[in-house]
């Protein structure tokens, strides 16, 4: 593979991972506020189908993306209402919605299967696109990929460098304390769950109008991505930058599996397609194992030298979730 | 290790008073949820440009118009019974065993493996089938144990561990069907070479229904009901599910019980997979689990984790699934309509139950096993 092909390939990875970046950062916002929106998988399918239909029938990409965001926000609102106002299990509501939205997208999308829709076009940024290597990778992309770049920095700045971001983190960590200091816990949770849902909803059209253009029902290849999104958020320790890195890592692996396919004769393509999932389990194992009790005991039994190295490695990988993730908040 | 305390031998009286005033209110609210679910589905049908009433009539006809239809509903009922009964055990222990799909698949894979291994030997066919079914149970249990070990020793939430394992199980099936177990000539999506008839469960009058698998399903549901409602083991499982820390302080070995729940659920799911191979398809097919595991989880939530309701609700879900198969032919609608209706139903039941707890003046009841809607989730639901 020569240099130019490699650069184009990597630029493709950035495009292909952009929906994952947007969806994972959306989910990061919701989970930072203490709400797990488990409906991601269904939401992406439903918004991919819905926005594709809007794009086909109106011809407007802008309307299509707005529709995608609205669908995501609406599903997230149901999760918020069920879990914040009605105090039902977030996992239960999210799981039901993920199946419901999936079947709904197949049902309603049936007549539009295989139709030709509009596609996002590439908008190179003048001057910047001429920078060698970086120009091709970062400045010859479509609008939504630029948006994903901006979102990473913006989300990080918002969460860690602004006052509302501080409130957001407080609501997810210690809602009682935040409430005592005047934060409107339930409102904050509603707001970020809905915002996060809207971002997850944007991922749908990013697939159906760009990365995996079209709507092909059950063989659209979108089923399962939402679960990867949820896993990447854990891998990224609820930090937008690390989360985005996780999404790019995943995109890179998928690209490699395509590139390497000809060299891996004998392994059926179906197996390569699911390769990310055992990797997901292993990754989660690496980042979580530091939290298991027996690890401490085993570490204590090790001799001094390897213990320090192992302990450092485990600590570096380990993630600790927002303290009140999934826990309903009672104002009184 | 803290001093072992005796546990109360039966649940609080509130859960035993089955037909008090509460029950009637509950029934009313649940019918309300049913009506809402049908309303939403009707709106969706109108959006799709289809006549709602006719669609429901077609589903009903598809499920009960002939003996073949009814027997097909019962054929779908069996794996649903097994999967729902299984997830009730893990729900009782406060676990979200989303890996139940993969456990069904592994049950089917191991069953197929034993059948392939022994089909050319001189062993009596009935004996081979029994061995194969046992292998299926073991396969499901082992796959569940993997999710359980990842959870208890690796800190990997069972939702993600289970999901990942589901995809791995599917890949394994595809690899087997297109690789080592492919049909003579070329592997295809239609599955492995069918087994001879004597290596399957005996069926009723030319239909796919087997009384043996029906019996296994019913026995499993009764066994799970007895386990959860009438035994100490069941009580301890629920204790672990309601409050892991308190259960541990009362002397319940918590991680062992969590693993036991996984093993039991996986065994039942594996049995479902074994039944699909020996009783229905007589071979391994790519989509051998048919989504029955996820449906089992939905049924578990719909019935608020009460084993007594498994059989009727599973029958209703099976009827919806079978009834909607002919929708594409008669109304040009996608058969996923059944999933839409089932999802809407569970969603509204959860929301209506939440609304009841939120707006009723009485204190919400607390003594129900499992991750009860409305109470705070078990210690680590959502811990990831």
Report what the structure shows:
The complex is a heterodimer of chains A (332) and B (384). Chain A is mostly helical and 332 residues long. Chain A has one domain (3-251): ABC transporter involved in vitamin B12 uptake, BtuC, CATH 1.10.3470. Chain A has helices spanning 3-32, 40-58, 61-85, 90-109, 134-138, 143-161, 163-173, 175-180, 185-211, 225-235, 240-260, 269-274, 276-288, 293-301, 304-317; strands at residues 122-124, 140-142. In chain A, strands 1-2 form a two-stranded antiparallel ribbon. The N and C termini of chain A lie far apart (64 Å). The relative contact order of chain A is 0.18. Chain B folds into 2 domains: 22-50 and 333-366, no CATH class; 75-332, ABC transporter involved in vitamin B12 uptake, BtuC (Orthogonal Bundle). Helix content of chain B is 66%, strand content 0%. The longest helix of chain B has 30 residues, at 125-154. The two termini of chain B are 27 Å apart. The model of chain B is unreliable at 1-17 and 363-384 (pLDDT under 50). The chains are: A mainly alpha (332), B mainly alpha (384). Chains A and B meet through helix 3, helix 4, helix 10, helix 12 and helix 13 of A and helix 5, helix 6, helix 11 and helix 14 of B.
Compact summary:
Chain A is built from 15 helices and two strands. With 332 residues, chain A is mainly alpha-helical. Chain A is globular and about 55 Å long.
Keywords:
heterodimer, A: 332 residues, mainly alpha, ABC transporter involved in vitamin B12 uptake, BtuC, 2 strands, B: 384 residues, 2 domains, 14 helices, 66% helix
Structural classification of chain A: mainly alpha
**What fraction, in percent, of the residue positions of chain A are helical?**
over 70%
DSSP, total strands of chain A:
2
Major sheet: arrangement of strands of chain A:
1-2
Indicate the proportion of strand residues of chain B.
under 5%
- Tell how many strands the DSSP assignment of chain B holds: 0
Specify the overall morphology of chain A. globular
- How much is the radius of gyration of chain B in Å? 21 Å
Tally of distinct domains of chain B: 2
Let me know the average pLDDT of chain A.
88
Low-confidence stretches of chain B: 1-17, 363-384
Category from helices, strands and their pairing of chain B? mainly alpha
| Largest sheet entry of chain A | 2 strands, antiparallel
What is the straight-line distance between the termini of chain A?
64 Å
